[in-house]
Write a structure and sequence with these properties.
alpha/beta, Cobalt-precorrin-4 Transmethylase, domain 1, Methyltransferase, Cobalt-precorrin-4 Transmethylase, Domain 2, Rossmann fold, five-stranded parallel beta sheet, five-stranded mixed beta sheet, elongated, transferase, EC 2.1.1.107
Length: 502
């Protein structure tokens, strides 16, 4: 079997990565990746994977191509599985063919994993179909930056200028004046539509449409930079009509997600689906306890409780894990009542075959107590499986109402980040517009890593809090929440962010 894989990472949108590519990323021993390959994919690598960045940014190569070839061969001879991750498709202006030839000469087996090329994906995300029966029946992919050592150009400008094909130029922003001039000299009308798409398919995608005659000047006025795809042809006239991606309400808006990594994926996906550039900065990790003997004892004595109140999804998960450890299941709850502090927690309980007897209208401890008192919980024996450290409002108020309350830690949260340098750098570059907090612990841990004074230097950055308890914690650090949803849930928080961004 091959131990080297030349893998196309696609144009950047994680949803455009192939299943085969993800499989290789997850199992490789050594990752060698380019500038245009989305670095977010690296989070799928094994913890022990050796990760090597080789650059290849226009005019600024961390390693020149011949050295990259040598590196791949050297690492391959170790017998380890190598993933050579390249933006787009390895064989479409990706120099994968050259790397393949080097591997053949070295007697090393390899496989190619094709990727979606930017020449198709970027125009599609900008509302431009590269073929359309009303405009053209062919498309031509062209390098906008030829090998400078070649004695003759491989570009046949006469053919390009006189054809009706859609022309897609890769890596051509620096040569845009020359490209436009050559096309017009060889027959393309000066008013031919031209589109430039930068960072196609990513949250920071931008595009504009001009004409061959004006595009170079307009790009200069806009200070247009690589990486960009240049599209020439009548299909560019469909940009405004068919554009869909750049209409997303949060496109280009940088949002910091401080939620624990184990829980952040849903929030991240929803925000990305609305176009946001998400900065994952989990300030806490959810960890099992070192000793579960107290939990096991409580489970075996569960019949003495009239109510069990779950205050989080994690509380449900860890409690049921211990049920399974001792050979029990949901039937142990027979004859008692179960409450959930919010809809996500309630759904987690339902997934285990139990319909909660109570879910409050407002998803904070104070409303839980009010609702439970209306259900005459006074005097009941109550078990609360929860985090090792959490707010004491719920147990305190229930005790005040005459309940016999047992707080049962089933997991703990720990500070997970080493420093806030990455967030501080993004703030300084102006890449962050919102910071979200979904609990008091995310607030406290965030400001352990990023000084409140640092965040105060950026008054235009808005703070989004999931609810009043989290907002109260923010106030202790000198901040008021700019955004707080009416419904204290993740969907409510996302809705409030979208409303603010529109």
């Amino acid at each position: 079997m091959a131990n080297v894989f030349l893998v196309g990472a696609g144009p950047g949108d994680p949803g455009m990565l192939t299943l085969r590519a993800k499989e290789i990323i997850e199992t490789c021993d050594i990752m060698i990746y380019d500038y245009l390959a989305n670095a977010d994919f690296l989070k799928w690598c094994k913890p022990e994977c050796e990760i090597l960045y080789v650059g290849k940014k226009g005019g600024d190569h961390t390693l020149p191509q011949d050295k990259i070839n040598d590196l791949i061969v050297e690492k391959a001879r170790s017998g380890k599985v190598i993933c050579r991750l390249k933006g787009g498709d390895p064989y479409v202006f990706g120099r994968g063919g050259e790397e393949g030839e080097e591997l053949v000469e070295a007697g090393i087996d390899f496989e190619v994993v094709p990727g979606i090329t930017a020449g198709v994906a970027a125009p599609a995300y900008a509302g431009i179909p590269v073929t359309h029966r009303d405009h053209t029946t062919s498309v031509c992919f062209i390098t906008g930056h030829e090998d400078p050592t070649k004695t003759e150009s491989g570009n046949n400008w006469e053919v390009y200028g006189q054809s009706n094909s859609t022309l897609v130029f890769y890596m051509g922003v620096g040569n845009l004046p020359m490209i436009a001039e050559n096309l017009m000299k060889n027959g393309r009308p000066a008013d031919t539509p031209v589109a430039l798409v930068r960072w196609g398919t990513r949250c920071n995608q931008t595009s504009f449409v001009s004409t061959l005659e004006n595009v170079a000047d307009e790009a200069r006025e806009r200070d247009w930079k690589a990486p960009s795809i240049i599209v020439v042809g009548g299909v560019c006239g469909l940009h405004d009509k068919l554009a869909w991606f750049e209409k997303k309400p949060m496109l280009g808006q940088g949002v910091v997600v401080t939620r624990a990594r184990e829980q952040a994926s849903g929030l991240v996906k929803v925000l990305q689906g609305h176009g946001a550039c998400v900065h994952e900065f989990p300030t806490i990790s959810v960890e099992p306890l070192n000793d579960y003997s107290a939990v096991e004892t409580a489970i075996l004595q569960l019949a003495r409780y009239q109510w069990v109140i779950f205050t989080s999804v994690n509380g449900v998960k860890f409690f049921w894990e211990q049920l399974a450890e001792i050979g029990l299941d949901s039937r142990i709850f027979c004859g008692m009542q179960v409450a959930a502090i919010g809809p996500a927690t309630a759904d987690e309980i339902r997934a285990r075959g139990i319909e909660p007897d109570f879910v409050p209208e407002k998803y904070v401890a104070e409303h839980v107590v009010k609702g439970l008192l209306e259900l005459e919980i006074q005097g009941a024996d109550v078990l609360i499986p929860r985090a090792k450290v959490a707010r004491e409002v719920l147990p305190r108020e229930l005790k005040a109402a005459g309940c016999n309350v047992t707080v049962l830690p089933v997991y703990e949260t720990k500070l997970v980040q080493a420093s806030g340098d990455e967030i501080e750098a993004s703030l300084e570059k102006g890449d962050i517009q919102y910071v979200t907090f979904t609990s008091s612990s995310t607030v406290e841990n965030f400001f352990d890593l990023v000084s409140p004074d640092t965040l105060k230097q950026y008054p235009d950055v808005k703070i989004a809090s999931i609810g009043p308890v989290t907002s109260e914690t923010l106030s202790k650090f000198g901040f008021a929440a700019d955004i707080e949803p009416e419904e204290y849930t993740i969907p409510g928080l996302v809705g409030a962010l979208i409303k603010e961004a529109e």
